[in-house]
Amino acid sequence: MELYDVLQIGITVLYTFGAVLFIGGMLGMRPGLKTAAGLSSGAGFALHTLSLALYFKLMGYGSFLEGDFHLSLLGWVLLAIFFALWWRLKLDFLALAASPLALLLYLSSMSVPGTKVLMPKALAGSFFMLHIGSLFFSLAFLAMAFAAGALFMHLERKIKTKEKLVGFRKDLPSLNTFDHANHLAVVFGFPLYTVGLLSGFIWARFAWGRIVTGDPKEIVSLAIWVVYAYLFHQRLAMGWRGRKAAMLAMAVFAFCVFSLVVVNFMVPSHHNFMQ
Amino acid sequence: MKQKIFLIGLNHRTAGVEIREAYALKDCNTVELGFVTPAGPVSEALALSTCNRVEILAVTDHRATADDVLQFWASHCGGSVPQLKPHVYIHEDLEAVKHLFTVAASLDSMVVGEPQILGQLKDAYRKSVEFGSAKVIINRLLHKAFSVAKRVRTETAIASSAVSISYAAVELAKKIFGDMSDNRAMLVGAGEMAELAATHLINAGVKDIVVANRTFERGEELARRMNGTAIMFEELHRKLADVDIVISSTGATEAVIRAKDLRGVLKKRRNRPMFFIDIAVPRDIDPDVNGLDNVYLYDIDDLKEVVEENLAQRREEAIKAEAIIASETRQFARWLESLELNPTICDLLERGEDIAARELARTLKRLGPDVSDETREALETLVVSIAHKLYHEPIAFLKRRTQEEGAAQRFIDTTRRMFNLDGEDVPEDAHADRKKVVPLRAVCGGRTSENQH
User: Fold this and answer.
1) CB–CB contact A159 B296 (8 Å)
2) pLDDT at residue A275 above 50?
3) Which of A136, A189, B302, B390 is 20 to 30 A from A236, comparing alpha carbons?
4) What is the CATH number of the domain that holds B66?
5) pTM for this structure?
6) What is the pLDDT of residue B358?
7) Domains in chain B: how many in total?
8) Chain A residues 177-206 with a CB less than 8 Å from chain B
9) Does B270 share its domain with B203?
10) Do the Cβ atoms of A174 and B273 come within 8 Å?
């Protein structure tokens, strides 16, 4: 897999440049750096797409069972959503979270050995597309909400407490923009999360004959779903906005990261990649 | 310097609004009025007239004085020199240049850093080009002024912070709402400062203004001026749910709006954020309002603090801006001096010798160390004499043409630009606008009036 290795190095270098340049550009208010960062990340993204395609060609649907593919795909989805939001809503500040996070996910994907989950490969395809695809997209939305939420809280505290606004980045978006990003994360993210969870339970019914298998990942995911549903409800039905909504979205994302890192890698579970 | 530059003017600091109105110079055609004449003492002029400032820039030979300019100004406006003179400032030569740069960079404006003045100056310049009263010096000076303004804007943060209370309020509103085209504002009480803040809000793009005043008629009058609507003061609380920004400036001694009034309002508007600006003393809005989620309250002291912090920052930036202006003024002074024939001839020859020396060095390097001293000397003489001979004809031409009346500066300036003797960077698109506008024969006839690079 020589080509694959070359791709790995290329992607890592381009993503690293992208993340560093983005952060430099955002903090130093240098539009030129941001453009360079966008180009670097974009090139990395293109190579990343190629590498995922290669992996998939080699392993077929079984690739969805591999931990490294898993994390690498997550990083890819995160950047895909980021680019879409950048293009449509000019929310380029999300790069502060998206680019380092994608890099991190990609790096960790390289350190993960393959998993050995037994499953008829022919069946795995469409199910995993649904199960993992939707969960990944919702997770990427949550990552965006996390970044937007953190910036919202920071700016809001400054405005509320009348703290020095001098020297504050002039081109930083308004509170409303951050809140809007949060809104998107909830409106699109929650239904996706629900689809991801449901498809998982349906799979469990076929694979193990039971809907609820008592697997740790299941329990944690259900708990997250409950909190996420609460946020969804409060936001859409009760008109929650601003700080509370931002904080809760950040919490949901933190839970998801916990679930990914701790449960998938450290706890015995049929979602574990390290078995 | 053969030419004298006068800049005579008045602004919001030196003259009241009546004087500024009486001595406005809107569309003042100095050529038609006989002020600028081809052979007369005043060869170039530009009149800038805005609501805060009236200025005349005049280029004269030493026959005309500042009083002549004042005389023209006063009689054109139907006033008198004794009435006008106490209000004006008179800058000469480099002081005039520096003042113009300062104005263009918006350092002399009422709201420092506001961008309108540059547009107004560009308009005034365009007019004087149309009238034919802008020639070599004004052309160069104004183009320089525009580029100085651009440098100050991009290299300093002078224009990036608000230094008036009402403007600071608008900047804060932008931080909360971003694009304000969907936002409504309400004025509670029709005070002067509230009106100013509302004007800034309208400029920032708010959708609608509602005025609630105790005297309905006065509120209505204000609403009409702002293209808004007036409501009865008693309706105020009921209307709160529809507005996002509230500017309050009543003379009430008790709080007009309290947190408990807002709970229902917030629910009704599904927690969309609200921004309260309280510029009344004593305060109209209970400070506990700021404790509510998605509600932001700034009173006059908070705003003053923002302004003071901004001012402190601006003082630092102003030092940077002044340094830019000073260095550009020096550069302009060098150019003005070079408008004489002799320095231009020296520069031309020097340029030629320079090129010759560089090329010689390259050739000698290629020939290696074996070149004899004789060959070296012969080559040196050769390149220098070629350079001198090449520039001989242009210099003879310049000497001839500068004998003509009024042609000296034009030809010297053209030569300096043709050989780039001032070593300036000319952007690639410098002539883009002219390619479309100026017909070919005008170029061939050498009759382009604008003197851009």
Assistant:
1) yes
2) no
3) A136
4) 3.30.460.30
5) 0.59
6) 92
7) 3
8) 177
9) yes
10) no
